[in-house]
Amino acid sequence: MNFPTKIAVLLRDDLAVWQRLNVTAFVVSGIAGTRPDLLGEDYADADGTRYLPMLGQPVLVFEGGAEVLAAAHGRAVQRGAACAVFTDELFKTGNDADNRAAVRSVARADLSLAGLAVHGPKNAVDKILKGARLHG
Q1: Cα–Cα distance between 103 and 98 in angstroms, integer?
Q2: Residue 124 φ/ψ, nearest 5 degrees
Q3: Which domain of life, per UniProt (predicted)?
Q4: What angle do CA 35, 67, 19 make, to 5 degrees?
Q5: What is the Cα–Cα distance from 32 to 27, expressed in whole angstroms?
Q6: Which one, of 12, 30, 135, lies nearest residue 82 by Cα?
Q7: 3-class DSSP state for residue 61?
């Protein structure tokens, strides 16, 4: 199926596996939480057990160095793209209020980005992610 938009996650390539998974879950929740129209229908198994809906289109996961992440972040902000960020400081906090305070305490240019998620038209997301590679 061909989708007019793209959901992509960009992770810094020096993160531990558990950090990559944690960052991915958090930043994708930002896209899903603000764009309920991207969610599909509820799931159900053959026994009728209901499950929560998931995003109705693929999420592509990319990786790159800190400089690639910083450049992508800058392009996302410049283009006004829907973007969720996860900074290194969030690995040390334990709740949403502290997470927001940690991000708020650092100027945009000084954010130590561990990852981000972006959603928008395919060509715009491709341009934002220039220099990143598919996660291996």
Answers
A1: 9
A2: -70, -45
A3: Bacteria
A4: 60
A5: 9
A6: 30
A7: strand
Partners of residue 11 on adjacent β-strands: 63, 115
Provide the whole-model pTM: 0.94
Q: How far apart are CA 24 and CA 117, in angstroms?
A: 8
Reported as a single tens digit per residue, the pLDDT across 19-77 is 999 999 999 999 999 999 999 999 999 999 999 999 999 999 999 999 999 999 999 99
86-103 confidence digits (pLDDT tens)? 999 999 999 999 999 999
Hey, what are 87's tokens?
């900074």
CB 86 within 8 A of CB 9: no
Is residue 119 within 8 Å of 75, Cβ to Cβ? Answer: no
